[in-house]
Amino acid sequence: MLEISSASNSLYKRLLSLTEAKGLKKEKSFLLSGKNLVQEHLKNPKLSLESEIFTEGMKPSTSVKFQIKMSKALFETLDVLGTHSPLLVLQQPEIPEWDFEKKHQGLQLLLPVGDPANLGAAIRSAEAFGVENVILLKESAHPFLPKAVKASAGSITRVCLFRGPSIQALKDPEILALDLKGTNLSDFHWPENGYLLGGEEGAGLPAGSKFRRLSIPTNQVESLNATVALSIALFHYSQRPKRKKS
Fold first, then answer.
1. N or C terminus of the chain: which is more exposed, having fewer CB within 10 Å?
2. Which residue in 50, 14, 56 sits closest to 32, CA to CA?
3. Across the chain, what does the average pLDDT equal?
4. Cα-to-chain-centroid distance, residue 141
């Protein structure tokens, strides 16, 4: 077991960098926080485990070989979500570039979501409603920021993530996009394969884009939270009549 009490410690500085996108891109590791998520991972690991971090008064797992005990003050700077429970340091999975030229089965989700919490929630909904691949556009937040990881409720470790271009570079008119004006979702028949473009609060779709637009009718309110709207659309997709296998 390693003990750290100084903010000048090089390992502490590396771990602290995992709370920001710049450090996540450089180090290729991330912090998993929250008692339930940590226990779930230890029972059924999906990614390589590097270490466990804890502080005074916490009971670390006996199954983790490399443990780091930190002073309470340093631990709190890493526990940015205030979980007050041990943290795991996991290796980030490789996020390859998506191949738009290849034919893909099912619905693929395109996300330009810049808010980490909304991004994590969107990835959670993708898993819940049967979307296997999530393509992160350049506008997207880093998927392994602490808020994104927490909001995904563990889905971030299971869903297949890919890198995509900027939303401005998407030109395929067959891409389905959620918008205030478009085909009423209740009247829409989903294709067997295709792309769904999720939105970000306030940003809207690029000017002049030719996507096929889908709308969710509402009463009294002008629009829904982007992640809520996306979840409704994904649920509707999951309820489509399935083709019978020959």
1. C
2. 50
3. 91
4. 9
What angle, rounded to 10 degrees, do the helices at 226-238 and 116-128 form? Answer: 10
Between CA 86 and CA 122 the distance in angstroms is 26
Distance of alpha carbon 126 from alpha carbon 231, whole angstroms:
8
pLDDT tens per residue across span 118-128? 999 999 999 99
pLDDT of residue 182: 86
Buried b (16+ CB within 10 A) or exposed e, 48-59: ebbbbbbbeeee
User: Whose structure tokens read 């099912």?
Assistant: 106
One-letter amino acid of 122: A
Mean pLDDT of 182-205: 84
In terms of Cβ atoms closer than 10 Å to its own Cβ (0-12, 13-18, 19+), residue 187 is exposed
- Judge whether 233 and 185 are in contact, CB under 8 Å: yes
211: exposed, middle or buried (C-beta count within 10 Å: 0-12, 13-18, 19+)? Answer: buried
Q: Give the C-alpha separation, 180 to 102, whole Å.
A: 31
The CA–CA distances, whole Å, from 126 to 177, 190, 230 equal 15, 16, 9
